[in-house]
C-alpha cells in the first residue's frame, strides 16, 4: 500500500496523560470526527493511525454542520490514515466541508484522495460540488483490504491543501470490525488508552546550543564539552506516579558513535562539525536533536586591544584591566569598548594597546599609519618602536612609519593614550593609507592575557568563607585562580566570569598583602587586593542533599511541581498527578510523617500551591489545569479549563474544600495555570502561561494550535480581599473562538500582561513582586510583530527575571488584548539560560544574614543537576552570581534556612542545606515559617539553643503558646498582635538572639 511520508508531532505532556496497555475490541461501525472532538457517536480520530503533519482547523461552529465544523489538513506531503481494520470488504464514507473562507470559490482548493492505493477523487473541488459551509459525503463500496490495514490518503493537488472532516467505515456484510490497538488523538477521552511508543514527542533530546572552542596549541583540534543533561522524557503515568527519564544517550558524527554519556569532552577538528544526539527513554521511545561544534584556529582576523585605566606614556607597562577583540582598529568616541572610559566629553585618563600580526608573503616596504586624537600614540613592530606622536586633543593627527616586512608575520602594537583634555578620542590604524582589514591583520587567541575588571568583595573574614565573583576578560586557555598563595575551587561561568566557591582563610592565603590573580597559558592578569578583617563573616556554603528516608536514602516522591510551608511547620506539595502531599520533615531532613489528599480530578495537574497569610486556619490553595486538553474530550471550551481550588485541614490529612476560581485559560500544551502568590492584602496573584510561542498562532503548531485569550499570557489578580463577595466564576461571551472571546464575569483581571510562561513568583520584604518568565522556542510558532503581521522565530530567546509593576506590559503578545508587538514594554532586569523558572527571596538568618534579602534563582534540572544563582537587588537592579550546580524546578525557603527544590521528573526533593559553624551558646533565630501572617496564627521558629522557658518577641510584643521542639532547634508559638515588618527575638534568661538586619516576620 502507498503511504505518504509525512511528519507528525503529537505531544505527550510532561505533566499529564496516563500510559496504559490498550485492549483490542470490536465495533459494528467506525466513525471518526477528523481533526475534532468527540461528537455524538463520532470519536476523535486516533492519532496513532495518522501519518502526516498534525494540522487541524477548528473555527467557530457553523449552523447546520456537525463533523464539518472541523477538518484536518496538510501541505505538500498530505496526510493519510492507516486503520487496523483487518482484511475484508468495507464501505468507506468520507465527509468534506469547505469552511475555510479563502477557499470558498471554484478552483481555490483542488486535491486528490486515494483509498487502498486507488485514486478515488482527482482534482477534487468541494466548493464546486457543495458550496460553502455544507457537508458533502462521498461513499465507496466494496473496498477490499487484503492485509490488516485500510489506508486512506489525502494528497495535495493543483491548489491549496488537502482536507478531510470525517471518516465512516463498516463491513460490507455488516459484521463487527475487530479494531486493533489505538491511542488518543485530538479528542482523547478520559477512558481512551494508548501505546506510549507511538508518541514521537515523548522522549525529548536537547543537544545544546552551538559549542565553540579554540585550537590554542595549533595542533588542528580542540576539546569541547557537550552537554545533553537537559534531555528528558515526557512519559508520565499518573496511575503509578512514574515519570520519564532518559535511559540511553548516543552522540554521533555521521555514522560514528563518539560517546554514550550524558555529558562528555571530545576533540573536534578546526571548522564546523555537525553532531547528532539520540536519546532513548525507559519505555524505548527515541528522539534526536542536532547541534554544531565550531572550532576556531588560534589566529583570528583583527586585533586584540588591552585597556589600562590611568595609564600615561610613562607607565604603559602596567597590567591591563580589560581586553576586547576588534575586527579593525578604528574607534571614535564611545566606539572604544572599554567599560571604564568616560562618556563623550569626560576627562578619564586611560590607554589602549591593540595587538595584532601583519603577514607579508613577500619582502616589501609598507606604510603604517596611526591617525588619532588624544594624548599620544606609539607604533611598535616586532617589539621595536617605529614612531611616536605627541598630544593632539583638538584635531586629528597622523603619524607614519615606512617599515620593511619580510616573508613573516610581524607583531604590530598600536598604542594610544587618552588624556584628561581629550573629549572626543579617536584612533585608526592604516596600512598604505587604507584601514587595515581583518584579512590582513590577525591576533592569536593563545596569547590573550586574562584581565580582572572587578570583584564582588574586596574584604574577607580572617577565617575565610563566602563566595567571590570575579569579572574580567580572557578567562580561557587553561584558567586558574590564585588568592595569595592559595588556589581555591571555582566555577568558570564564562570567559568573562569566575565564581570562587569559598574564599580561603587568611592562613590559607599565606601572603601579605593578598592579591587575587587569574592565570592562563598566556600569563597572569592584573591583581586585585583582598583585605582580611577581624569582622567575622560566615560565608555562604551549602551541602547538596535531599529529603531522606529514615535510613538516610532519598525519599521518593513523584511528580512534585510546587512546594509551600504551612503554619503547622509541614511541607505541602502539589503534583502532576493531582495530589497534595503533606510532609513532616526534621532538621536532619528525614521525613517523619506523610499523608496525601484525594486526587483533585482525572487528568488535572497541580502546578502551583500557596497558603493565605491572612488566614489563621490551614487552607491550601492549588492551581489545576488539564494540559494538552485538545487531546481530551473537553469540547470547544477546553481552553478555559484552568482553576484555583482549595483544601483544608482538620480531617486527618487534607480535605477538598471547593473550586475558588474557574474559567482560567490553559494552553493545549504544557503552559497552564502556574504559580500562586498572595499579596499582603489577601489578594491572590496567579501566573497563567501563554497559548502561543511568541504571540502568533497557526492551527496545529507545536504549542497546541490555539490563540491567546483574554486572560492568557499574564499574571492575574483575584480579589480575594472582597471576602464573601468574591466571584471566582470567570465567564466569556463565547467559547468557540478564544481569540475573539471577551470576559463577561468573575473578579479576576490582568495584573501584569506579557508573560509567556511565568512559573516562579516571589514577594520581597519591601512588597515588590519579582517573577521569572520562559523564553520562546524555535519551531513552536511565529513572532507577532503587530495585530496583523508576524515573522519567523529568528533568534534564541532567554528566560527572564522581571520586577512586576501592575499594569505594565512585559513583551509576550496577546492579540485578544490588542497587545500585539513582541518584545515591547518593560525590559527584564536579567536574562538567564533556559529553563530557569524558580525564584525566591532568601529570608533566613543563617550565614549571619549575608544572604538575607537576596533573590535566589533555580534552573530546572531535567536529568542533570541544575544551577542556582544569587543576586542582591540594588536600586531595583541585579547582578546574577552562580552559587551552586544543584537545583530543581522551583525553589522555596526551607524551615531551617534550606533551599528546597522539587525534581519533578527525578522523583525527589533536592535540598541545599546551609553549612555553618557554632552560633554560640545564646539563642539564635534562623527563620520564621510562614514569614507573613496575622496575630493569632501559629508559626514555626527555627534556630539554635532553644529550651523550655524561652520568651519569644515579635518586635516588642510577646508570643504565646510557646512549645520548644526538635531538641532545641525549633519552636511553635502564636503570633502576638502587631503591625509592619518586625524582628523576632528569642530570649532565655539573660541571653537573647541577635537581631539580624532585614526583619523576620511581616504582619499583613
Quick structural gist:
The chain is an all-beta fold.
Description:
By secondary structure, the chain is mainly beta. It folds into six domains: 29-189, Sandwich (Jelly Rolls), CATH 2.60.120.430; 203-297, Immunoglobulin-like; 303-437, Galactose-binding domain-like (Jelly Rolls, Sandwich), CATH 2.60.120.260; 451-537, Immunoglobulin-like (Sandwich), CATH 2.60.40; 543-913, Neuraminidase (6 Propeller); 920-1003, Immunoglobulins (Immunoglobulin-like). It is 1% helix and 45% strand. The strands form 23 sheets. Strands 25, 26, 27, 29, 31, 32, 34 and 37 form an eight-stranded antiparallel sheet that branches. The chain has a five-stranded mixed sheet with strand order 2-1-13-7-10. A hairpin with a 2-residue loop joins strand 85 and strand 86. It is globular and about 100 Å long. Mean pLDDT is 89; it is low at 1-25 and 180-200.
List the helices and strands and how they pair.
Blueprint: E1 29-33, E2 43-44, E3 50-52, E4 55-57, E5 71-73, E6 79-83, E7 88-97, E8 110-115, E9 118-124, H1 126-130, E10 135-145, E11 150-159, E12 163-164, E13 166-171, E14 203-204, E15 211-215, E16 221-227, E17 232-233, E18 236-237, E19 242-243, E20 246-253, E21 256-259, E22 263-269, E23 271-281, E24 286-297, E25 299-301, E26 303-309, E27 322-326, E28 330-332, E29 350-360, E30 364-374, E31 376-381, E32 384-389, E33 392-405, E34 408-418, E35 426-431, E36 434-435, E37 441-444, E38 451-455, E39 459-461, E40 468-473, E41 480-483, E42 490-494, E43 497-500, H2 506-509, E44 514-520, E45 523-524, E46 528-533, E47 542-546, E48 560-565, E49 571-575, E50 580-585, E51 591-596, E52 605-611, E53 619-625, E54 642-648, E55 655-664, E56 673-678, E57 684-688, E58 714-718, E59 731-732, E60 743-745, E61 748-753, E62 761-763, E63 769-773, E64 783-784, E65 790-791, E66 799-804, E67 830-832, E68 838-841, E69 855-858, E70 868-871, E71 873-874, E72 877-878, E73 881-884, E74 892-893, E75 899-903, E76 908-914, E77 924-929, E78 932-933, ...
Parallel strand pairs: 1-2, 15-24, 39-46, 78-87
Antiparallel strand pairs: 1-13, 3-6, 4-5, 5-12, 6-11, 7-10, 7-13, 8-9, 8-11, 14-17, 16-22, 18-19, 20-21, 20-23, 23-24, 25-37, 26-27, 26-29, 28-35, 29-34, 29-37, 30-33, 30-35, 31-32, 31-34, 35-36, 38-40, 40-43, 41-44, 42-43, 44-45, 44-46, 47-76, 48-49, 49-50, 50-51, 52-53, 53-54, 54-55, 56-57, ...
